[in-house]
Amino acid sequence: MCATRRTLWRMVVATALWGVANVMAQAPYRGPLFDAHLHYNDEACVFSAGGECPYPVKDVLAMMQRAGVRAIIANSRPNDGTKSLAEARDATRTAGVTVVPFIRLYRNRADYSGWFADESIHAMVQAELAAGTAAGPYRGLGEFHLYDSRNADGPVAAKLMKLAEARGLAVLAHVDDDAIDRLMAHAPNARLIWAHTGIGGSPIARVSQLLQRYPRLMGELSYRPGLTGANGGLSEDWKTLLATQPERFLIGSDTWVNPRWSGYEALMADARRWLGDLPPAAARRIAWGNGAALFGLPDPD
Ligand SMILES: [Zn+2]
Fold first, then answer.
1. Beta strands in the chain (DSSP E)
2. How far is the CA of 143 from the centre of ligand 1 (A)?
3. How far, in Å, from the CA of 94 to the mean position of ligand 1?
4. How does DSSP classify residue 226?
């Protein structure tokens, strides 16, 4: 073989190897999933007599089972949906899904905009905590929203952060980066899960800064702008952050409206696609291990 042909041959082999490595890097993550942002709201099912129920408990559990979801942070407006999942002990066991119940702060849509200063919400949380669920005690509060970060200093917001810290409850908060600082100021040792890790697109440097400032802050990644590119893979800067700090992130479906339920399995497949861009150990931590560790769940495998 002459020198030119040898060089050409090497180029062909190198290109083929690169192609194989690339395909391997994009193999989806296949392990268990912990869905850390799941709502079972009354649009999905109304549990009072005569209520409409387009997504009954058995159907949502079947979707989770097909998607390989083995545990969920369950919360709902009102809390009836969460309780129904918690009460379905046989069905959840058969589906292999552990329900981690959170108290939602909303009885109805009106509560979204005023909960942080509404003493009746604080009373509802106290009553729910005392009652617990069929799947055990509540393990967290939220998801709640703060559309104006200054409301993180509302009297009930401050009180609930302190309650969460004192009772070892996690908090799932859909807020901007400024509100993270404000919420943590009320309860520096609280376990705060930042829903969407900044849905408004807080710069990645700011996300890193907050993770460094608050060692107990975790980021949940549904709807996070810039996480993935057009091909569904991780963007370069997010791949770097997730690979270097895999212990700080969680995945979630955010089934806040029914189209998220009809697309549930596709959403989880999307997550598996980008998780496959990470080193396997990092992918498993984000997909399953961090949620399991937060709530003391055994490995499902
Ligand atoms: Zn949500």
1. 33-39, 69-75, 98-103, 140-145, 170-174, 191-194, 218-220, 249-250
2. 6
3. 26
4. T
Q: What spacing in Å lies between the alpha carbon of 274 and ligand 1's midpoint?
A: 21
48 burial (CB, 10 Å; 0-12 / 13-18 / 19+) is exposed
How many angstroms is it from 172 CA to the middle of ligand 1?
Answer: 9
Q: Which backbone phi and psi does 285 adopt, to 5 degrees?
A: -60, -50
Chain centroid offset of residue 142 CA: 12
Q: Which residues pair with 99 in a beta bridge?
A: 72
User: What pTM was estimated for this model as a whole?
Assistant: 0.91
DSSP 221: -
CA angle centred on 64, ends 138 and 61, rounded to 5°: 70
pLDDT digits (tens, 9 = 90+) for 148-200: 999 999 999 999 999 999 999 999 999 999 999 999 999 999 999 999 999 99
Find all residues with CB under 8 Å of 43, minimum gap 6, and list them: 54, 257, 258
- Dump pLDDT digits (tens) for 103-138: 999 999 999 999 999 999 999 999 999 999 999 999
Edge-to-edge strands of the sheet including 33-39? Answer: 33-39, 69-75, 98-103, 140-145, 170-174, 191-194, 218-220, 249-250
Burial group, residue 270, by CB count within 10 angstroms (0-12, 13-18, 19+): middle
Residue 17 CA to ligand 1 center (angstroms) comes to: 42
| Cross-strand partners of 251 | 35
Distance 37 CA to ligand 1 centre (A): 6
